[in-house]
Amino acid sequence: MNHIHTAQYNFCTLFIGLFVACLTGPATAQETYRVKENIHYRSGVSDDTYIHERCVLDIYYPEDATGFPTVVWFHGGGLTGGEKFIPNELKEKGIAVVAVNYRLSPKVKNPVYIDDAAAAIAWVFKQIADYGGDPGKIFISGHSAGGYLAAMVGLDKSWLQRYGVDADKLAGIIDFSGHAVTHMTVRAERGIKETQPIVDEYAPLFHVRSDAPPLVLVSGDRELELLGRYEETAYFYRMMKVAGHQQVYLYELDGFDHGAMAAPGFHILLRHVNELTKK
Q1: Which domains are delineated in the chain?
Q2: Per residue in 264-273, pLDDT tens?
Q3: What is the four-CA torsion angle of 51, 53, 57, 60, rounded to 10 degrees?
Q4: CB-based contact 209:155 (threshold 8 Å)
Q5: What region, left, alpha or beta, does residue 72 occupy, with left being phi > 0 and alpha being psi -120 to 50 degrees?
Q6: Nearest by Cα to 109 from 46, 185, 56
Q7: How many angstroms separate the most distant Cα atoms in the chain?
Q8: Could you give the CA distance from residue 263 to residue 77 in angstroms, rounded to a whole number?
Q9: Which residues pair with 220 in a beta bridge?
Q10: Statement: the pTM of the whole predicted model exceeds 0.85
Q11: What is the DSSP string of 221-254?
Q12: Distance CA 5, CA 127 (A)
């Protein structure tokens, strides 16, 4: 594998990558895909109407294939809003995509939404083989709040341990512009303003470790990002390196703000999924 430790993408680089992808087309163009929607990933809790409403996921997968990778995708929305969706950029790429809803603040408080993310990932580990996927090729990803959830669950092993899953079995964590410090909504629930960063056990930065799964960090343009998100991401990258992690990657997408950076980021996600699952 070609180890790229840092990279800064500009418009030209992205255009070339996307143009090549369009020319080559998906590697599995002859496959058919199915979607199963609103699968409950928590059992025995149907009497809780909010859990019944929000703790559901959709799975999009190649119907007649086996051994394919899976990307678990968490939507953004500041932990206060948002809705699951299958990103168009990940369709017909020979992979499964699991789009997850989770409970939201202020109806619930921290750490309920983190635990929901862990429960959904654990469901994928236990069920993906039934759909043809390889449990050894599960990636977790998301944008903004979704990236924060992916990083939290992937780095702090305690969340998946409670569901009998080892976080180190993840094939990779791909974080699109998620908080590296304690999330602003977690802080808001404590009365802390968004411009006052803290790092505690609810910050991915708190859990940097050398033995974590491969970690891909993608940020928008540092001058356009939200609340210093690029600098958070860059420091997260640096501390993972200092801790001795050997497979951490940092990308800055020139010209793209916090909302717009997700679409070009999928090119990076797919490249790393392909490289990390090569035989």
Answers
A1: 6-276 (3.40.50.1820)
A2: 999 999 999 9
A3: 170
A4: yes
A5: beta
A6: 185
A7: 53
A8: 16
A9: 253
A10: yes
A11: -TTTSSTTHHHHHHHHHHHHHHHT-SSEEEEEET
A12: 33
For tokens 């899953």, the residue is 165
CA-nearest of 34, 240, 66 to 136 is 66
Query: 202-216 burial, b for 16+ CB within 10 Å, e for fewer?
Result: bbbbbbbeeebbbbb
pLDDT digits (tens, 9 = 90+) for 209-225: 999 999 999 999 999 99
Contact by Cβ (8 Å): 115, 159: yes
Q: Which residues contact 45 (CB under 8 A, 6 or more apart)?
A: 51, 52, 55
> What confidence tier does 43 reach under pLDDT thresholds 50, 70, 90?
confident
What pLDDT score does 8 carry?
55
H/E run at residue 173:
strand 172-176
- Residue 27 to residue 20: CA distance in whole angstroms: 13
CB 233 within 8 A of CB 177: yes
